[in-house]
Design a protein that fits this description.
By secondary structure, this protein is of the alpha+beta class. The protein contains four helices and eight strands, in the order ββββαββαβααβ. The strands form two sheets. Strands 1, 4, 5, 6, 7 and 8 form a six-stranded mixed beta sheet that branches. A two-stranded antiparallel ribbon has the order 2-3. The N terminus is likely disordered.
Length: 202
């Protein structure tokens, strides 16, 4: 029996949900004048990262692999890593196995999992585990820190333009370089969250 494993190897430092909006409308008439009141909730977009670990078995290894690759393509997935072992199982080994790490667009995540685990005639589902990590607070903190450093950087550039000595210029340039390095690190962390929110891991 060939075994196929769809696996998740990443656990992060988030899947995407459409922002929720609540609208409340009230109408009242006072002194012949109609007053219309609208209350709109603040749109809150959560930063959620979805991951799944799926193990499968099949007696039709090549057909199963073709099926899985087709579903990855249909759902606009990206294969980040793929390993296959014992491919000559007919003559040398008792089985073949594969490990595949896939990134699937968040909007196709549930559909993809349903498709790869729902073909009982070709693939037997051994086990599946799913996790959701919420990075909303971390993301908000990163944005606050990034904004603060950008303001600081702009002030340093202003100080640099008005520097009165070479020594002062060198000191300010060193502080600008340090601020830029910290800013780059925070922006990279924020971008990683955005990528992990956009593409779920299976």
């Amino acid at each position: 029996i060939g075994s196929i494993t769809y696996n998740d190897s990443e656990s992060y430092e988030t899947t995407y949900e459409e922002p929720m909006m609540t609208v409340t409308e009230e109408s009242s008439t006072e002194n012949g004048v109609e007053t219309r009141i609208k209350d709109e909730a603040i749109i809150q977009q959560e930063k959620l990262v979805y991951t799944a670990r799926v193990s499968m078995e099949t007696k039709e290894y090549l057909d199963a692999m073709n099926y899985l690759h087709t579903k990855i393509t249909e759902n606009n997935g990206i294969i980040e890593n793929e390993e296959q072992k014992n491919l000559n199982y007919d003559t040398t080994y008792d089985y073949s196995s594969s490990y595949i790490l896939v990134r699937i667009p968040q909007q196709n995540y549930e559909k993809f999992l349903s498709e790869i685990s729902g073909n009982d005639t070709l693939i037997s589902l051994v086990d599946i585990s799913r996790t959701v990590d919420n990075f909303t607070t971390m993301y908000s903190d990163l944005e606050v820190e990034i904004e603060s450093l950008e303001v600081m950087q702009e002030r340093l550039f202003n100080y640099l333009r008005s520097a009165s000595s070479i020594e002062e210029m060198l000191d300010i340039e060193e502080r600008i370089a340090d601020t830029q390095a910290r800013l780059n690190k925070l922006v990279n962390s924020r971008n990683k969250i955005d990528r992990d929110v956009a593409y779920s891991t299976v």
